[in-house]
Amino acid sequence: xxxxxxxxxxxxxxxxxxxxxxxxxxxxxxxxxxxxxxxxxxxxxxxxxxxxxxxxxxxxxxxxxxxxxxxxxxxxxxxxxxxxxxxxxxxxxxxxxxxxxxxxxxxxxxxxxxxxxxxxxxxxxxxxxxxxxxxxxxxxxxxxxxxxxxxxxxxxxxxxxxxxxxxxxxxxxxxxxxxxxxxxxxxxxxxxxxxxxxxxxxxxxxxxxxxxxxxxxxxxxxxxxxxxxxxxxxxxxxxxxxxxxxxxxxxxxxxxxxxxxxxxxxxxxxxxxxxxxxxxxxxxxxxxxxxxxxxxxxxxxxxxxxxxx
Length: 309
Description:
This protein is about 10% helix and about 30% strand. It has 4 helices and 20 strands. The strands form 5 sheets. Strands 1, 2, 3, 17, 18, 19 and 20 form a 7-stranded antiparallel beta sheet that branches. A 4-stranded antiparallel beta sheet has the order 6-5-4-11, with no helix packed on it. Strands 8-9-7-10 form a 4-stranded antiparallel beta sheet, covered by helices on one side.
């Protein structure tokens, strides 16, 4: 989510917006998550696990909302003990999502882009970019490569860099249609810049199960929906021993992406976020620390109590 949020931000998260969840693992050391402070000792016991229930909230998840959720693919922990992630919800249940040349579309219509959305650029230069130069331009995400740097910034700042006399070239690192990216969710020759179309499951909706759809929804059916006697054999889905040609979803799902579009481990790589993994809505940054700064400059005073959009 850089630069919309920064590493070191402490967020105030409202669990009331989307409805608070009842505890799934009630046997837990208070005010801990996964481990006891400063140790690797588990802070909870999974000897007792309860059904996940969600109380009524006063808002629904909207497109472009920043959302805190438990990372779905972290299967070594119960749902409520999985690592907290914060990303932007770019697709809600029932949407058909597609990315074409970096622009995200929902149901055929372009989605408004976040103001601070970043991409990766190759900056060709023989100069060493000094910390003050980078700090003045609010560039924190970069690494050296032969001939220059790969850095992440917003397009207007990339254009400004290209105008400097000691920079030979600034090239957007965009992937092309049909260029398969390793590790991408869906595995249909998609990549971070050209993705989909992909239907985001909605509670009660039914999809046909075939060789194209099963890889997209297999994890949902086998893992997130708590189906019993369910398996995939030879590319076919079996429910209670019978081959299933269709499937009806039991809960809503969401598609999350980071604003740093070329450096974000998000739904493009691990898939959908189930509704029962939603934690809440980040409201404001109550404290922020820059661990890389000098000791008297570590606190980012200007970010204290800033609203999250």
